[in-house]
Design goal:
Blueprint lengths: L2 H64 L12
Length: about 80
Amino acid sequence: MTASDDRRGPAAEARIDELEARLAQQDQSVLELSNELYRQQRQIAQLTEELRALRGRFDSLAARESDPDPADEVPPHY
């Protein structure tokens, strides 16, 4: 212990210990949030790719239906 540590007293040391504990908890929280953000970014990228694939399928189906073949049409019922 240094001379400045002797002057701080037990209240100051308790406060420093509390601040160190809070800092450790905040570091852990930041790490957990960072990991969750990374997981969500990967999920968003995957969903974006799936959406692109579905849009491509939808566009190809829409292109086929926009120019229907008259032989495929169902005759009206009387």
